[in-house]
Design a protein that fits this description.
about 475 residues; transmembrane; transmembrane helix
Length: about 475
């Protein structure tokens, strides 16, 4: 394994990069997966999805059904990917070489890296925007202090994210277990303090939307939650004991990722459905808008906890994006890879916070655009995982001449074709805020055109996932069987 370095879990900074985790370090249990996934998804940012979902024109009950199904199913898919981590003890994008080839994996690897960078940057942006809004509400800063406050907030948020990710897996796991209790407790307090803002009659009086609008909302939930994490799912299960139950890994991954978002999104739906002004404000500053519902004494604690929850999610992303960077052939230590991504995160945050005029538009457009190829990749890898009956040949994951070969034409071709088809069935709903995505939707004429009711359902994500899974399940069955017999 020429890409490896000497792993060590005894030092403060994790040195293990993309190499195979040694048996002596594989001490984690399936229930340990609850902590990182819960802590990363207990953020009050989840409440913002209530506003996003109602923006599709659906009713409260429709949005509730969509959110529960979308959250649980998307994290269930993450759990299936996590099985590979136990079987191969390597990061997700290294294990994906079994399906795409040792060198062919770089194609989905680039998409995965961009997805992780985008996610972690969006979380950092949200934290900075929330800081400015809350401090304004407290009266601690005025208009003249905005720039300085944003600069300081950007630096502090980036430092927290990068610092934790550089320290690595063991520190992050301990940190997430602490944050789970802290952020979970204060989130419950937030629910109690804002409960009186719910207008039950207004919330339940919203008219039903069409089935197509529900599907569009469902796609957004899936890409915004589980599918947004699916490319890093095995990174957190690679320290699992080899004897760990596959079913338990899937279960704890799904519970950890789903339980908080289901509650938070439903509460966010009640708040957004009660107040159209709040729903509109969430689009510009998700957490800052929610903070306006709190009494003054709760604002500063809310800000601290909100930042920590966002940082918690971003830490998972930047840690994994560093591993993905290494899997692409960048030969630097893992901590350095995390630091490189940290610089990119900081730059992206500065651009959006100081120069962009809209947040939610580009964010949703970004989710759908990268969500299509990521859904295709997930379909292929899930089929590969479910077809296999043995652990991975760990040496072959690093050897282009090994049983997984350098390139897998079936997987690569499937991902390319499925992505092209998928992009044809999604549309950029934010043409003004994200004009760089106006090229999508070129196949919508088959289902009513860009003005039809299915245009904004973003069926391309489902098409890419389902088509890739079916093709890989049947077309690669013989190849997987031969690989396991080699």
């Amino acid at each position: 394994m020429t890409e490896s370095t000497s792993p060590s879990s005894s030092t403060l900074i994790e040195r293990t990069g993309i190499e195979i985790v040694p048996e002596s370090d594989r001490t984690a249990r399936p229930r340990d997966l609850f902590w990182p996934w819960f802590a990363a998804n207990v953020s009050v940012f989840g409440m913002s999805y209530g506003s996003f979902l109602l923006g599709f024109g659906i009713s409260l009950w429709q949005a509730t059904v969509v959110s529960v199904i979308g959250i649980v199913v998307s994290f269930l898919l993450c759990g299936l990917i996590a099985i590979a981590g136990k079987r191969g003890s390597a990061p997700t994008m290294v294990l994906s070489r079994a399906a795409f080839g040792v060198r062919g994996q770089k194609i989905p690897g680039v998409v995965s890296w961009l997805t992780s960078i985008g996610w972690e940057t969006s979380l950092a942006i949200t934290a900075v925007l929330a800081t400015t809004t809350v401090l304004h509400a407290l009266g601690w800063v005025g208009a003249d202090g905005d720039v300085l406050v944003k600069v300081i907030a950007t630096v502090l948020v980036a430092a927290l994210i990068v610092g934790a990710s550089v320290l690595g897996y063991h520190t992050i796991m301990r940190l997430q277990s602490v944050l789970t209790w802290l952020t979970g407790g204060f989130t419950i307090l937030f629910l109690v303090l804002t409960f009186s803002h719910i207008d039950w009659s207004a919330a339940f009086s919203r008219p039903d939307g069409t089935f197509a609008q529900m599907i569009g909302a469902l796609v957004m939930v899936m890409t915004g939650f589980g599918l947004g994490w699916i490319n890093i799912a095995a990174d957190w299960s690679r320290y699992q004991r080899r004897t760990a139950s596959d079913a338990q890994i899937v279960t704890w991954n799904t519970i950890g990722g789903s339980v908080a978002p289901v509650v938070l999104v439903f509460f966010g739906l009640l708040l957004a459905a009660s107040d159209d002004g709040l729903a509109a404000a969430v689009g510009a500053d998700p957490i800052g808008a929610l903070a306006t519902l709190l009494p003054p004494w709760a604002l500063f604690p809310f800000l601290i906890v909100a930042i920590l929850t966002l940082v918690s999610g971003a830490v998972l992303g930047i840690y994994s994006s560093g591993l993905t960077l290494l899997s692409l052939g960048i030969r630097i230590p893992r901590p350095a890879a995390a630091a490189v991504d940290g610089v990119i995160l900081t730059a992206g945050t500065i651009v959006v916070v100081f120069f962009a005029t809209s947040f939610i538009g580009p964010f949703q457009s970004f989710l759908i655009t990268l969500g299509v190829p990521m859904a295709s990749w997930a379909g292929i890898l899930i089929a590969d995982i479910l077809r296999r009956r043995r652990d991975y040949d760990e040496e072959a994951l690093f050897d282009p001449a090994g049983r997984y070969r350098a390139w897998d034409g079936i997987s690569i071709g499937t991902m390319i074709v499925a992505s092209v088809i998928g992009w044809g069935f999604v549309v950029n709903g934010f043409a003004d805020a994200a004009p760089w995505n106006n090229w999508q939707g070129y196949l919508l004429f088959l289902i009513g055109g860009k003005e039809g009711e299915w245009a904004y359902a973003n069926l391309g994500v489902f098409f890419a996932l389902a088509l890739s899974f079916v093709v890989a399940w049947f077309a690669r069955a013989g190849r997987i069987s031969r690989q396991e017999q080699a």
